[in-house]
Amino acid sequence: MLTRDELLLPLARYRTDEVVVTTMSTTRPWGRISDRDLDFASADSAMGHAADLALGIALAQPDRTVVCLNGDGSMLMSLGTLAVAVDTRAANFVLFVVDNGAYEITGNQPFPAAGKLDFAAMAKAAGFPLVFRFDDPEAYAEAVPDLLRAPGPVFVHALVENGHEGPISRSASEHARYLQSSLAGWSRTMRTALNGDPSDL
Q1: Is pLDDT of 197 > 60?
Q2: Angle between helix 4-14 and 137-149 (nearest 10)
Q3: Pure H helices in the chain
Q4: Is the distance from CB of 44 to CB of 168 less than 8 angstroms?
Q5: Which of 113, 181, 182, 185 is most buried by a 10 A CB count?
Q6: Can you list the positions of beta strands (E) in 65-121?
Q7: In which region does residue 145 sit, left (phi positive, over 0), alpha (psi from -120 to 50) or beta (all else)?
Q8: End-to-end CA distance of the chain
């Protein structure tokens, strides 16, 4: 099983100009290691829709890879996104399911069938051409460059230790810059970056 750092640090190390959409338990940890205008926190009221949002960005920006760090409970709420990603042939879409077995930021309640669901098998059944499952940090770290460059859609089921992240406040008390802004404000920031502003690099 991976720690949160073992999941995120290799991704940050090999990332170039990819959009990274986070949600729930990965939002604060990612914001502690990345401060880019192409980071987007989908951690507000629409739980379960980070993957939909990320897929939409990927379809609108076909020349830029979009990575979604989705939660396990969030993925369970929107399994239809798997079929849509395959049907749209989103070759620039990399969908992670960060499986810690719980709704972490609302109090670590276990999600339905936690520890029993095989998200990788679901992705294969939906038709994802590339599906990976990682519980070993070294194997995962070695694979990250290929995950970011492979023609997709790509699906990654990562087994990660549970943590203790709480609800997101979107205020000056947050360390991550993308959480200090309102959702609407940061949406404008990222749109500027996507349109070629130098601050995206």
Answers
A1: no
A2: 30
A3: 4-14, 27-33, 50-60, 72-77, 80-87, 119-126, 137-149, 177-180, 183-194
A4: yes
A5: 181
A6: 66-71, 93-99, 102-103, 109-110
A7: alpha
A8: 32
What is the Cα Rg of the chain in Å?
15
Residue with tokens 């959009």: 19
Tens of pLDDT, residue by residue over 2-22, are 999 999 999 999 999 999 999
- CA nearest 162: which of 95, 112, 106, 82? 106
Q: How far is CA 145 from CA 11, 16, 134, 135, in A?
A: 8, 10, 14, 17
Element containing residue 19 per DSSP (H, E): strand 19-22
Identify the structural domains of the chain with CATH numbers, from first to last. 4-196 (3.40.50.970)
How many Cβ atoms are within 10 Å of 12's Cβ, its own excluded? 14
Of 77, 17, 52, 10, give the one whose Cα is nearest residue 198: 17
- Taking the whole predicted model, whether its pTM rises above 0.70 is answered as yes
Contacts of 191 (CB under 8 A, 6+ apart): none
pLDDT of residue 100: 84
Q: How many CB atoms lie within 10 A of CB 63?
A: 6
Q: Which residue has the tokens 């000056």?
A: 172
Confidence at residue 196, expressed as pLDDT on a 0 to 100 scale:
74
